[in-house]
Amino acid sequence: MSSAIQGRPAAAVDRRWLVLVVVAVAQLMVVLDATVVNIALPSAQRSLGFPNGDRQWVVTAYALAFGSLLLVGGRLGDMYSRKWVFITGLAGFAVSSAIGGAAVSFEMLVAARALQGAFGAILAPSALGTLVSTFQDPRERGRAFGVFGSVAAGGGGVGLILGGVLTQYLSWRWTLYVNLVFAAIAIAGALAFMRTSRAASRPRMDWPGAVLACAGLFLIVFGFSHAETAGWTAGLTIGSLVLGLVLLAAFVVAERRSSHPLLPLHVILDRTRGGSYVAVGLSGIAIFGIFLFLTYYLQEVKGYSPVTSGLAFLPMIGCILLSSNVSSIVTLPRLGPRVLITTGMLLGAGAMTYLSQLTVTSSYAGGVLPALLILGLGFGMIFAPAINTATAGVQRQDSGVASALVNTMQQVGGSIGTALLSTIALTATTSYLAGHHTGPLAPAIAATHGYTTAFAVSAGIFGLGVILAIVLLPSRQRLAELRAAAAPAAQAAPPAAAPAPAAAAPAADLAPQLEVHAIPVALPCCSPVINPASLPAGRPAG
């Protein structure tokens, strides 16, 4: 009897860590897909024969579906069993990947990418929500989310290399087919180790709010994506952005009146959480300055192969792994989010300023590597504390949509950054060519000038992030007050909300919510998004 009782906790612990493995495999699949598909895009274009003007839609279709449906995907995890929502996202992602790999036309490939984005919007919040509900002890939760964040960041580096290898030695189609292997492993693990659980009082779906949020976010992402190719003054660009803002304003009005809002406004109106979301969004805008244009610089100006370019980013990935885990476990409890995120923003601004000095003849060791190391440390200090603070004080029934909102801010910020920085780089390149004599190196020099201009603007965005982080984010003492305030609410939860054998669970249920240590699952989706339509004119043939 005694041995049997002693064996139960050990089995439960083992099951929790096996759940972590399953979720990490699913996360790795999403991260790899976000990277390898973009690297394989030129090969896919040659195979299917679609024009340069259309190839951006292979990237944009995924971003539109993913970004616009994230809030709905997060709420589904709050409404139904996270296990089956998680499995549904995995299965749908796998099927859509198979359709994309077998595509015989451009339209079929774009449709498959949109389906991937839709199921990714279901999978991403449910994966994070699964860990939130599985790990209740603060110390275990810190370790679990440290592993999760490490897989997310490390997977971005693996994807850069794997995408180049699969494309170069097999076929671009295998960059999509490889998802079936990861999905099969994760589904089998979910069926074996995850437990079916439902909320004691299931929230309802706010359908009017869902329609307004999806349509508004879709139009915002579409507007910024359309600006890349058509310009900011195009009628469709302006119309999409204006209508998107109107619909989001209507969404806010609808949420204030709804008895079961899709996004409870108290989640974002709190200055602490709002500041965290702003930090994530600004970082999403600025992060494309490093991933997008540095990828072009290495491949188009320096002549690196896709595999070599992937290897070049690995030092930054290693620094992200180190910084995110140290920030989560050691420095955040001692210094608080304001100090860490502000420092991370300062490091980002400094690294971008350093990259703005690049020239055609700059070496990797002297011109690129130092900035990558600094950026990796900075990103780890920004995202790990931001996701922790963004969930501070959030009720358990809102954890899914709160997690989805972090991803939404990252995705929308990334779309804004791609369009804004691409336009700035293109304008700088064109102006440089018009004002300087032509020559054999003129296209490369002009392209590099465009990239460095984008780096300088990214440095300014990080500088704005420094100011907002100081003004909006809480100190260590304020975050401690939030934790203390959440503890009585957890203890006051009705006993019926938890199973009888776990009488002590409610008190440990909400408080650990404040101990989430992870980088947003959308961060790796910002790994080098190689959108050739954004490449400034006049680039060297490479």
Chart the SSEs and their pairings.
Layout: H1 2-39, H2 41-48, H3 56-79, H4 82-101, H5 106-134, H6 138-169, H7 174-193, H8 207-230, H9 235-257, H10 266-269, H11 271-301, H12 306-335, H13 337-355, H14 364-390, H15 399-435, H16 442-472, H17 476-491, H18 505-510
Quickly list its features.
mainly alpha; single chain
Structure description:
By secondary structure, this protein is mainly α. The protein has helices spanning 2-39, 41-48, 56-79, 82-101, 106-134, 138-169, 174-193, 207-230, 235-257, 266-269, 271-301, 306-335, 337-355, 364-390, 399-435, 442-472, 476-491, 505-510. Helix 5 crosses helix 15 and helix 13 (337-355) packs antiparallel against helix 14.
Separate helix tally: 18
Largest sheet: none
**Could you spell the SSE succession in H and E letters?**
HHHHHHHHHHHHHHHHHH
Poorly predicted spans: 1-12, 489-542
In whole angstroms, the N-to-C terminal distance is 72 Å
As a percent range, the share of helical residues equals over 70%
**Coarse shape:** globular
**Beta-strand content bin:** under 5%
Structural class based on helices, strands and sheet pairing: mainly alpha
Mean pLDDT: 75
Give the C-alpha Rg: 23 Å
**Assembly annotation:** single chain
Question: How many beta-strand elements?
Answer: 0
